[in-house]
Design goal:
- About 45% of the residues lie in helices and about 20% in strands.
- The protein is built from 6 helices and 5 strands.
- It has one domain: HUPs (Rossmann fold).
- The radius of gyration is 15 Å and the shape is globular.
- About 30% of the residues are buried.
Length: about 160
């Protein structure tokens, strides 16, 4: 069984994340969405809320693709999380060239810690390349419409929390 790990804070999950998840399903039999606890970032949504949003938004993808998709909270090193879930591949989404430099460094460090786990980069679809959770939260906080950036349920949760 090919197991992939797609890590992030997902605060909140966006259409860009959904795009990467959908395409990652063609690469693996089981996709673990690693939900980073990361207290330093001060997430808007609690861990339980983020996990619930992910489960809701990926259910249809799992049904359509036949891929098992699970949300898995983690607070340890990414490579340790990958070992814990028995992932053979870490999936990372890239939006722009600026993302690549950071991701390139992370891959190097992860490879030095565990060279048997590969990292695969998936480019975000052109319509999703500008989407970042931080910007979505800011747009919503300032009264803007985030309809084209997040699923409907996430939009409603953002509006409830921020307005």
């Amino acid at each position: 069984m090919r197991i992939g790990l797609y890590p992030g804070t997902f605060d909140p999950i966006t259409n860009g994340h959904i795009d990467i998840i959908r395409r990652a399903c063609s690469l693996v039999d089981r996709l673990v969405i690693g939900v980073a606890i990361n207290r330093d970032k001060g997430p808007l949504f609690s861990l339980d809320e983020r996990v619930a949003m992910i489960r809701t938004e990926v259910a249809e993808i799992a049904a359509k693709t036949g891929t098992e998709i699970v949300a898995h909270p983690f607070e340890n090193l990414l490579i340790d999380c990958a070992r814990d879930v028995k992932a053979s591949v870490i999936i990372r989404g890239l939006r722009a060239v600026a993302d690549f430099e950071y991701e390139f460094q992370m891959v190097g460090m992860n490879r030095s810690l565990e060279n048997s786990i590969e990292t695969v980069f998936l480019m975000a679809d052109a319509k999703n390349q500008a989407i970042a959770s931080k910007l979505v939260k800011e747009i919503c906080r300032l009264g803007g419409d985030v309809t084209k950036f997040v699923p409907t349920g996430v939009k409603e949760a953002l509006e409830t929390r921020l307005r």
